[in-house]
Every structure is written in C-alpha cells, then in structure tokens.
Design goal:
- Strands 1-2-3-4-5-6-7-8 form an 8-stranded parallel β-barrel, surrounded by 9 helices.
- The chain contains 12 helices and 8 strands.
- The two termini are 32 Å apart.
- Strand 4, helix 7 and strand 5 form a beta-alpha-beta unit.
- The protein is an alpha/beta fold.
Length: 269
Amino acid sequence: MTMNRIDTRFAYLKSSARKALVPFITAGDPSKEATVPVMHALVAAGADVIELGVPFSDPMADGPTIQRSSERALARGAGLSFVLDAVRDFRSNDADTPVVLMGYLNPVEIRGYARFAADAAAAGVDGLLVVDLPPEEAGDLRDALGQHGLALILLASPTTPDARIDLLCRDAQGYLYYVSYAGVTGADRLDTGEAGDRLALIRSRAGAPVVAGFGIKDAASAAAMARSAEGVVVGSALVSALAESAGTDDAVARATAFLAPLRAALDAG
C-alpha cells in the first residue's frame, strides 16, 4: 500500500520528535451540525489524527459514555452515509489531517467491502478500525481497503497472545492501536507502568507506530502513556466533555478547552 495521510503524519511527527494526539469523537454527537466544526477545532487545538466513531446500535467494546453517545447520534439519523458526508465536508477545509473511522463490522458488511472502501476513499477517509473483526479474518477487508489506499488499523491488548502479537505487528498499517487494559472504553483503571512495559515490547516488534488508548482522560495520563508509545488516543473523556454542549459554538469551545492541555503536556514531554 502506498503512503497515505496517516503515514505522512507519523513520519512528520517522528522527524519532529513529537507524540501523536489522536482524539475520538462520535459522528453526530453532540449534534450532527457540530460534528465538522468540532473536528476542525480539535485540529486547531493540536490533534494529529482524528478518529471518527461510526454510530452503532450494539457497541459492545465501548463503555456507557460512548454507548450513550452512539445511541444519541443514531437517534439523530447519523448513519454511515452521514459519517462519510461529514468527512467530505471536513476535507473541503482540511486536506492534510488523517481521519480514521472507528466502529463495528456490521455497517461495513451491509454496504459491502468494495463499495465501502470506494465510498470512504472518495470522501477523504484514510483508515478504518473495526473493533469486532479478528485479524485472522481481516484479509478480504484489508485487500478491499488497500485497493483505495486506506489502512486497516489493528488492535492489540494486554491479553493478546504472543502468536497474535506477531501477526498484528506484521500486518499493522497506519498505526497499531494498543488497548491499555482489558475491558471497555472509559473505565478508570489505567496502570501506566504495566501498560508501558507491554508497549515497549510491542513497539520493538511492530512495523508501524504504536498508539495507546483506553483510560486516557487528562493531560497527566496522556503524558504518562505517551512516554511508552508514539502517541495516545483519548475518547470517552472527550465525548463526555462534549455531551452537554449547548449548541455548536459551545461544543467547539469545549473541544478546544479539553484538548489543548493534552497537547501542551505531550509537547512538554
């Protein structure tokens, strides 16, 4: 697969000795109208990659915060077509920031791998992270995405056996997402020391940058995890901060206020 925006961004970060800050938001929450303005606000506040959640009715890997966010978005009609439209709109003013769709296999299967890959690439998507797709079964989707220059982002966790770690490190595209603990998103039990030891091992074997997510909720936890990874993902805490927004302007202000301290902490080392 040729280099896409994700590869270009991580190469730049490496050359600049900077860590990647990857915020996650659910498309369509806190409102459909706020989605693209919030994406731009996150970039302005220091995001290097945006993970955009595809709302799904049974988000089994997510904790209550993102589950409720997905439910609210679906109630507003924020399905896959809306998500792709949002990325297309975002691209009209940002041609460089990588966008990774994060979600579950069902909406992709319904559209069909080939059509999904073509539609996502046309909208300006750079990668896809499918929570419920085992890497051993991902070949067909990886091939379909690869034909359009999209990366299939893979997940590793503390309970991933060594044989699968070898597979993940070999097949990693874009970046490898390390789930910092076994469980759902948003739980409050991150052990940065234990996670850091596991991260060091995976980074020594991976053929792509490794970013850490799950349990990162503020500047301190972001900085701690970033010492052992190429970057960090923050999701539930940001989604929670946006949930009570009173309109688009408020959502933009909340996104900025939340992310800017994390960017400062990463840059301070």
